Design the sequence.
């Protein structure tokens, strides 16, 4: 298969060129004109043939999920099945040859199918361009429009990292200027190959392609496509690109779906897209089993408001590089920090009602977002070229100012509750050190320790455990003392626990505690989260208290219940899979007397840090040191792996690793007595590992290079007589200022 590896900018240029080129070519390239009709389909003014050898013919049998079969036939239920009589009522118009086809007219029960044969996928000339020009097709048993076999420029195993160019794809769709096209379609549930459980057919969307599909507008971009689906709306089995025109989708399940796991790319480069999905039991607005890449256009998308679905959802990266995005859902998937355009992710403490007016303004009163929600929502992702970094914004719902209590760095007013391993509640380094055999203390002349510059670990960090992974933590709930100022930075895009600003109403503020004040404690893999009860500081009805648990960042898990719905069984809301999670308890916004939000973050079997991913090269090293209490985070939710290592951090971490006895020192003017690091500095000085600058200063906040840390460890090894090759700990590539992740990688080798 032809492999595409080009830059995003080149893709955009090619995409824009292709749209104009196709639209212009339609005026000069020979078009075959198809007019649909329930009575007589015509092709270039002549009655359509019934021979399958014709470029366009009528009379193929429709492919559908037939009733009357047992479970060996497929995975469909009774509601997915249709009778032979219902299927026979549908007229199938099939295109069998490459070319450009302008299609208009109506099929009350029918299908437009494109099938260029089984060899088409590898034939670059097997391209069909459909110009939809006032088409109206309804199908009650299968997709109304389907591409079966055309050219496929990509392999279904090729990971394009979210960048595709579908200029040459065999499935090309153009929306004719000034046209309104209507597609009402059904789907085909999974049918097995005879005698197996392998897929023979499965077509979930009303408008469907088995190959990559490229949808564009004609020159002016005024053409419209309206899709109404009994299951999913617009689907491709591999890649899908929307480049222009106006597309409106209403679907019972997902609005758009591209379904090759880890590979598919849904790319939106221009035009207007409106999706109201999940009108049935579930459904995402846009759901890619691989990547979602938004480069332009205007996108308004909504998910089911009762299931844990999002306006945007992707198993791989969601990247926003341009355009305007308004995505509403119960839980939108997190967008990638690699996005070229700024975005803001808002998680509300309780469900916001249909009809709510959302407004985002800057400090000068300019309104960047004004949108009225067409359905209930709890999560909103917004992106626009006007949205800027390091700018103060205010959020309003129905004219009422909102505040948040959490963001990408954790909670306002203190950390999350129970998000770390068990240990003391004092300053970092003041807890009981890890257990283990203590190496002999070195003796000798104190070597000089050089200088450097990043921030030290902040005061107030939690103490560390005596060994294993979490069972404890203190209850540090947030009572709703949040901020009304939303500021997006390179690293902060997400804001949680959003509710009415407490200073702007006369409601009584309430707080919540869980597990009799113990909070939610993290657990190891396979262990059950303990959640036994909720206590409220005022007499708020259980029916007006909403509990929400989502994963952090938002990817896979979301459960929401009213306290009255749980009926004392709190296990209903708690996850079981490994991950990081957030519990939010809040008074619903419709309560006229009370307001209040409390949040906790906890982990199951993973690090509690949102900035360390399981596929990071240093993940296992950081996890090993964290579990043993040797390295902790710079906050309850941040490890700051790329931040430089300070002199205080280096000595404290090494001291914890060696399980030393702390000793206070009065040798330095800038070492605060009884601080989180002072006892370790005293040990290092007493045992000849470090001295200061010669003027009575230790410089605890100055940063450290890899060479300097290597020197410290070399001196320790030399003085203690340990049989360790320091060169093996420090690879030649490790130079310059040392990061916290690099320090973890070095020290983990000493465990």
Sequence:
């Amino acid at each position: 298969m032809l492999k595409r590896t080009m830059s995003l900018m080149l893709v955009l240029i090619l995409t824009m060129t292709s749209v104009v080129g196709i639209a212009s070519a339609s005026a000069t390239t020979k078009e075959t004109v198809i007019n649909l009709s329930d009575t007589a389909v015509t092709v270039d003014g002549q009655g359509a043939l019934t021979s399958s050898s014709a470029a366009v013919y009528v009379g193929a049998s429709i492919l559908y999920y037939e009733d009357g079969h047992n479970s060996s036939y497929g995975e469909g239920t009774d509601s997915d099945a249709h009778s032979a009589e219902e299927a026979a009522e549908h007229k199938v118009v099939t295109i069998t040859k490459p070319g450009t086809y302008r299609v208009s007219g109506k099929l009350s029960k029918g299908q437009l199918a494109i099938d260029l044969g089984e060899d088409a996928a590898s034939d670059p000339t097997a391209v069909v361009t459909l110009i939809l020009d006032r088409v109206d097709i309804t199908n009650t048993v299968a997709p109304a429009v389907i591409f079966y076999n055309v050219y496929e420029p990509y392999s279904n195993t090729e990971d394009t990292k979210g960048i595709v160019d579908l200029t040459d794809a065999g499935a090309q769709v153009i929306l004719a200027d000034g046209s309104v096209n209507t597609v009402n379609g059904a789907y085909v549930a999974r049918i097995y190959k005879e005698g197996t459980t392998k897929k023979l057919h499965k077509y979930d969307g009303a408008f469907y392609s088995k190959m990559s599909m490229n949808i564009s507008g004609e020159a002016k971009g005024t053409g419209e496509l309206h899709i109404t689906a009994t299951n999913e709306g617009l689907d491709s089995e591999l890649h899908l690109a929307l480049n222009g025109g106006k597309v409106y989708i209403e679907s019972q399940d997902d609005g758009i779906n591209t379904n090759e796991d880890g590979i598919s790319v849904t790319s939106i480069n221009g035009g207007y897209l409106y999706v109201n999905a999940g009108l049935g039991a579930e459904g995402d607005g846009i759901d890619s089993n691989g990547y979602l890449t938004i480069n332009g256009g205007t996108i308004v998308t909504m998910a089911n408001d009762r299931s844990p679905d999002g306006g945007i959802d992707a198993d791989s990266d969601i990247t926003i590089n341009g355009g305007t995005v308004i995505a509403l859902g119960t839980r939108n998937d997190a967008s990638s920090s690699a996005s070229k355009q700024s975005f803001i992710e808002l998680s509300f403490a309780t469900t916001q009602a249909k009809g709510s007016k959302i407004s985002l303004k800057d400090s000068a009163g300019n309104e960047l977002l004004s949108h009225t929600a067409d359905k209930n929502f709890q999560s909103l992702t917004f992106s626009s070229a006007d949205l800027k970094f390091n700018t103060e914004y205010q959020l309003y719902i129905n004219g009422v100012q909102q505040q948040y209590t959490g963001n990408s760095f954790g909670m306002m007013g203190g950390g999350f509750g129970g998000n770390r391993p068990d240990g003391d509640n004092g300053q970092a380094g003041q807890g009981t050190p890890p257990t283990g055999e203590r190496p002999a203390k070195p003796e000798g002349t104190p070597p000089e320790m050089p200088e450097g510059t990043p921030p030290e670990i902040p005061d107030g960090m939690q103490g560390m455990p005596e060994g294993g992974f979490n069972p404890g933590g203190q209850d540090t709930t947030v009572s709703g003392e949040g901020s009304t100022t939303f500021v997006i930075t390179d690293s902060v895009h997400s804001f949680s626990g959003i509710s009415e600003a407490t200073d702007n109403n006369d409601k009584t503020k309430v707080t919540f505690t869980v597990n009799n004040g113990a909070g939610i404690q993290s657990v190891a893999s396979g262990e059950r989260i303990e959640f036994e009860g909720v206590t409220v500081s005022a007499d708020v009805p259980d029916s007006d208290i909403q509990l929400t648990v989502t994963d952090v960042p938002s990817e896979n898990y979301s459960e929401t219940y009213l306290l009255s719905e749980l009926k004392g069984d709190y296990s209903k809301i708690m996850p079981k899979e490994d991950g990081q999670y957030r519990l939010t308890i809040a008074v619903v916004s419709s309560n006229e007397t009370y307001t209040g939000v409390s949040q906790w973050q906890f982990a199951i079997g993973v690090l509690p840090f949102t900035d360390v991913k399981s596929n990071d090269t240093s993940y296992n090293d950081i996890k090993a040191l964290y579990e043993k209490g040797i390295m902790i985070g710079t906050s309850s939710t941040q490890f700051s792996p790329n931040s430089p290592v300070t002199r205080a951090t280096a000595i404290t971490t090494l001291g914890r690793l060696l399980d030393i006895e702390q000793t206070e020192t009065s040798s330095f003017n800038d070492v605060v007595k009884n601080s989180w690091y002072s006892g370790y500095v005293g040990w290092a000085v007493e045992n000849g590992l470090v001295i200061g600058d010669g003027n009575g200063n230790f410089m605890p906040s100055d940063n450290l290079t890899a060479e300097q840390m290597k020197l410290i460890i070399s001196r320790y090894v030399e003085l203690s007589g340990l049989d360790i090759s320091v060169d093996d700990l420090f690879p030649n590539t490790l130079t310059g200022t040392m990061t916290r992740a690099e320090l973890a990688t070095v020290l983990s080798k000493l465990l």
